[in-house]
Design a protein that fits this description.
With 177 residues, this protein is mainly α. The protein has one domain. Helix content is 93%, strand content 0%. Helix 1 runs antiparallel to helix 2. It starts with a helix and ends with a helix.
């Protein structure tokens, strides 16, 4: 006895639907690849941006130190002029103590500016590193999702083929009874 046409059509439809679904998953895999690549690109951008910001912070500190030195020279000049105007011997110990204290305070301010800039740059780099690591992790998760979706699509295809074959065989053997 022949296999009923309806069973063959149903099996073919099931298999055809599964094949279309499988090919659709291929397109989905390309989307996963594109998303993973975007995450990787964004990670590189985050890293480079963080590095540029940290460099800027360091350069800004150098500019501030330069401005502070210039200001310190002006203060020293004013102090010397004031001491001379009062008839003070600028080579005396008292005058030199005042000038030394001013220079020491200026150096401490310069050191503080550099230290704060180094901390800010370090924090910026760490933030950029963390953001880049997170984006790379998302890229890896996307690749894992792609593998899982690919495996699921294959399993669905094989399952449909088996189900369709089973339906045809069942119809064939039911028709023999």
């Amino acid at each position: 006895m022949a296999v009923p046409i309806a069973a063959i059509i149903q099996a073919a439809s099931s298999i055809g639907s599964s094949v279309l679904s499988y090919w659709g998953s291929k397109s989905q895999n390309k989307l996963y690849d594109a998303q993973a690549a975007a995450y990787e690109t964004n990670a590189e951008i985050a890293q480079k941006t963080g590095e540029r910001q940290a460099d800027y912070q360091t350069q800004e500190a150098a500019s501030q130190v330069h401005a502070l030195r210039k200001q310190g020279e002006e203060v020293k000049g004013s102090q010397l002029a004031a001491m001379a105007a009062q008839g003070m011997d600028i080579s005396s110990g008292s005058a030199q103590d005042v000038l030394s204290a001013s220079e020491r305070a200026q150096r401490e301010d310069e050191d503080l500016i550099r230290y704060n800039a180094e901390l800010a740059a370090l924090e910026t780099r760490r933030g950029a590193d963390a953001q880049a690591a997170d984006l790379r992790h998302q890229a890896n998760q996307t690749r894992i999702a792609k593998k899982q979706a690919k495996a699921a699509a294959k399993m669905a295809l094989y399952g449909s083929i088996l189900t369709g074959s089973s339906q045809v065989a069942s119809s064939y053997f039911d028709g023999k009874k």
